[in-house]
Structures are given as structure tokens and as C-alpha cells.
Amino acid sequence: MATFEFTSLAIPMEPPIRALKDTDVAFIPVISPYTMSRQEATDAVPEFYPKVVYPCYDRGSAPAVFASALKDSGIDVGIRDWYE
b or e along 9-31 (b: 16 or more beta carbons within 10 Å of the residue's beta carbon)? Predict the structure, then answer.
């Protein structure tokens, strides 16, 4: 179990996430077609630059692909098995 101390938390659900500021932790729902596609999320996250981002994927997706796409961004990507 991890404990975090942060001042802001974001769980964006639609395109206005690009306007977020000073976000410490973001949980990005990437369950196309219901929220964002992996590419839309990968493009949007660096624009509001959270310190840590957790991709929340539907079962069977590949969160490592999301993490790989952001590897040079300076954003920490947390990957969890949400379905254990």
C-alpha cells in the first residue's frame, strides 16, 4: 500500500483536462470509446503536467504502452492492477 501526501488530485473525464494546473496526481480513464483513447490521453497529459499519472484501463489493455509513450516527459507513471 502506498501513502501519498499531495495538494491536488485530478480524475479528469473529458477534454478540458488540458486546462488543469498544479496537479500532483492524476487518474486518467483510458477506456475508448467512453472516455479518451490511449493516444488522446498520451497527448493531453504532458499539457497539464501532473507529477504522477495513473492510467485506469479497462481489462485487457496495455498500460505499459501508455507509460512508454510518456517515458521522456518527466512525469511519473504509476501502473497498478486495478482488477485484482
Answer: ebebeeeebeebeebebbbbbbe
